[in-house]
Write a structure and sequence with these properties.
Strands 1, 2, 5, 6, 7, 8, 9, 10, 11 and 12 form a ten-stranded antiparallel sheet that branches. A two-stranded antiparallel ribbon has the order 3-4. The chain is built from one helix and twelve strands. Helices cover 2% and strands 45% of the residues. It has a single domain (2-129), classed as lipopolysaccharide transport protein A fold. It is an all-beta fold.
């Protein structure tokens, strides 16, 4: 069975706790969203109840507040059985100010890991926002005391042959 959702102004939540029964398969829908909800917006969405795959095409936007992730792409495929999302086509991901740009990005939900691939003649670009370092308290700001290492002792005695050499 195939279900198509076209040009809807509301989002389809991808959390397991919010579901809609279509045929004998359960699908996530938008409602009051708990913290672990992933919201998917697009021009067109299709859900295949046999494979458990939701495909979103056109102006795809993903919002995952629990991980502070926002993403845009041309297409996204959500594999509900594997708990992974594959974004393709001009992918831009922002997580807490750090950004990732690529042609294809796979997000492994349970691992919280991105795998990015460039287009054949391009590169992946990642910009990481590093947290500001906190100043150390005065007692720790001085250089740590170091103990000198003991000198290394090498045995440089000549080696005597076990059998005499005949000249």
């Amino acid at each position: 069975m195939r279900v198509a959702v076209k040009k809807l102004g509301w989002a389809v939540g991808l959390a397991a706790s919010l579901t809609l029964v279509v045929g004998n398969r359960q699908w996530p829908v938008a409602q009051a969203q708990p913290r672990d909800t992933i919201t998917l917006r697009s021009d067109i969405q299709e859900a295949n109840t046999n494979t458990g795959v939701i495909t979103a095409r056109g102006n795809v936007q993903i919002d995952y507040p629990a991980q502070q992730i926002r993403a845009t792409s041309a297409q996204a495929d959500y594999y509900s059985n594997e708990r992974r999302i594959v974004l393709s086509g001009n992918v831009l991901i922002d997580q807490e100010g750090s950004t990732l740009q690529a042609e294809v990005v796979t997000y492994l939900i349970d691992e919280g890991r991105f795998v990015a691939m460039p287009n054949p003649d391009g590169q992946v670009e990642a910009v990481y926002l590093l947290p500001e370092s906190q100043p150390l308290p005065a007692s720790e700001s001085a250089a740590p005391a170091t103990r000198p290492r003991p000198p290394v002792q090498l045995d440089v005695s000549p080696v005597e042959p076990s059998t005499p050499l005949n000249n």
